[in-house]
């Protein structure tokens, strides 16, 4: 069995900017759970080069976890601070949200109506859990989206002064032809990172894509344009 890193070793080998700390948490969750695909997916989203320290683990097959492999509560406490555990729990929720949304988008015919309703309800639960109580979106809200040289974008509700994170792929699939949104392009990824940090300091950053129809409302069809105007 490949020796695995503890939190300190994992953190030192996974140096990401503060704006991408949620991806580090996702990679750590996947690493602990021996979820190699989940780890690779998070690393790809973060545009992070996988370090040598985990390549052997990625190349090995998942082995059954024995009782000796399971860390005690005392060991976990030593390895992770309260803040890190909180970030990890939040990251698990964000990962569930992202995966559920992707499943509905990519494989709509794989689920019956009951399953779709349950998945939509779960998305609404997570959305409500992870957004400020005072955030309410209407069909006339103004929007900006900031594109940089990477997949990471910043989507801002300029009426409510609330920002969301999303990927360029997420935006393209859902709102490529959307109207009533100002598109901004910058060539420095650090500029978007700085904007994210500013919104986070003000507690105005939601680190996930908005829930369509609930947290973002933009016209994408001719009939929706007519209704908006």
Task: Give an account of the 3D structure.
The protein is α/β, with parallel strands linked by helices and 229 residues long. It has 2 domains: 74 residues, no CATH class; 97 residues, no CATH class. The protein is built from 10 helices and 5 strands. Strand 2 and strand 3 form a beta hairpin. Helix 6 packs antiparallel against helix 7. The longest helix has 25 residues. About 8% of the residues have low confidence.
Topology (SSEs and partners):
Layout: H1 7-13, H2 21-32, H3 36-45, H4 52-59, H5 73-79, H6 82-106, H7 113-129, E1 143-147, E2 152-157, E3 162-167, H8 168-175, E4 181-185, H9 189-201, E5 205-206, H10 222-228
Parallel strand pairs: 1-4, 3-5
Antiparallel strand pairs: 1-2, 2-3
How many beta strands in the DSSP annotation? 5
Instruction: Summarize the biggest pleated sheet.
Output: 5 strands, mixed
The spatial strand order of the largest sheet comes to: 4-1-2-3-5
Structural class determined from secondary elements: alpha/beta
Number of domains: 2
Total of helices: 10
| Helix share bin | 40-55%
Order of helices and strands: HHHHHHHEEEHEHEH
Radius of gyration, CA atoms, in whole angstroms: 19 Å
Uncertain residue segments: 62-79
Annotation keywords:
229 residues, alpha/beta, 2 domains, five-stranded mixed sheet, 10 helices, globular
């Amino acid at each position: 069995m490949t020796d695995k890193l503890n939190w300190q070793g994992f953190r030192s080998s996974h140096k990401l900017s503060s704006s991408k700390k949620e991806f580090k948490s996702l990679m750590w969750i996947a690493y602990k759970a021996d979820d190699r695909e989940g780890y690779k997916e998070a690393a790809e989203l973060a545009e992070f080069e996988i370090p040598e320290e985990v390549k052997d683990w990625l190349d090995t097959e998942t082995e059954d976890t024995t009782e000796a492999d399971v860390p005690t509560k005392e060991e976990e406490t030593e390895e992770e601070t309260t803040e890190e555990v909180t970030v990890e729990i939040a990251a698990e929720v964000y990962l569930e949200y992202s995966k559920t949304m992707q499943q509905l988008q990519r494989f709509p015919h794989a689920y019956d109506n009951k399953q779709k309703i349950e998945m939509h309800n779960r998305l609404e639960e997570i959305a409500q859990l992870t957004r400020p109580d005072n955030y309410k979106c209407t069909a006339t809200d103004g929007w900006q989206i900031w594109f940089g040289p990477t997949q990471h974008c910043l989507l801002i509700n300029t009426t409510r002064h609330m920002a969301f994170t999303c990927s360029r792929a997420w935006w393209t699939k859902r709102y490529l032809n959307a109207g009533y949104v100002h598109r901004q392009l910058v060539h420095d990824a650090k500029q978007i990172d700085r904007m994210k940090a500013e919104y986070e300091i003000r507690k105005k950053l939601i680190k996930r894509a908005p829930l369509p129809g609930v947290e973002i409302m933009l016209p994408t069809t001719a009939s929706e344009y007519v209704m908006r105007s």
